[in-house]
Amino acid sequence: MTFVLVIDDEPAICRTLRINLKARGYQVETAADGRTALDIAREHTPDVVVLDLGLPDLDGVEVLTRLREFCTAPVIVLSARHGSDDKVEALDAGAEDFVTKPFGMDELLARVRAQVRRTALVDAPETVRTAEFEVNFEARTVTRDGAPVRLTPTEWRIVELLARNADRLVSQQTLLHEVWGPSYHRETNYLRVYLAQLRRKLEPDPSNPRHFITEPGMGYRFVP
User: Fold this and answer.
1) Which tens digit of pLDDT belongs to each residue from 72-95?
2) Which of 119, 143, 178 is a domain's end point?
3) Confidence band, pLDDT 50/70/90 cuts, at residue 51
4) Is 131 helix (H, G, I), strand (E, B) or coil?
5) 125 with 137: CB under 8 angstroms?
6) b/e per residue, 169-192, with b = 16+ CB within 10 A?
7) Domain containing residue 207: CATH number
8) More confident site: 167 or 9
């Protein structure tokens, strides 16, 4: 049974999410503050985390940062903050999705289902190897010539999405939606910046990439 951890200090939201998630077969735990949530996550590894940024004890981004030290479960951030800076900060800290309050329950449930599907790729390989580097999906690491390569959470999500779809074109819109969220469908400049960073870190010749290939006007392709 999929275990969803809901972290929110609004009792009405916790109660509503608990009822709706349980009605659809999920196991649910709720926490009203960050420290309690981290204790629950350490004791009972969640499959999906729904995290409010406005918590009474710790800022939600700090909770997310601490969570990422030991937990790889996808995180859907809930927030009344509508600014793009808040979204970027949360996504860069390791969140997979960002939903602003007030939100529609059907939409949130669809986003939970999407994250469950993404983590249920049981047939996916644990690693993808190239001549220069190795991507380990389970450990969420990349090593080059045996040495770890430090990637930001956003860089990792791009590498993971492209490497899991090796030799297939991943459109710009898919990358923007999956990495930054559905409201970022026009920010193609983000992709150019991040792909350039990844090439500098992983390609033997960043100016002539052999693994992270641009398909002009369409998207990107990872070639092992």
Assistant:
1) 889 999 988 766 787 788 888 889
2) 119
3) very high
4) coil
5) yes
6) ebebeebbebbbbeebeeeeebbe
7) 1.10.10.10
8) 9
What is the distance between the alpha carbons of residues 171 and 218, in angstroms, rounded to a whole number? Answer: 6
51, amino acid identity: L
d(CA 133, CA 145): 6
Residues in the chain, overall count: 224
- Tell me, yes or no, whether 115 and 132 share the same domain: no
What is the b/e burial string over 58-90, where b = at least 16 CB atoms within 10 angstroms of the residue's CB?
A: bebbebbebbbeebebbbbbbbebeeeebbbbb
Mean pLDDT of the chain: 89
pLDDT for the residue numbered 123: 46
Q: Provide the domain limits for residue 148.
A: 127-222
Strand partners, 134: 129, 143
Q: Which two tokens stand for residue 142?
A: 């990349």
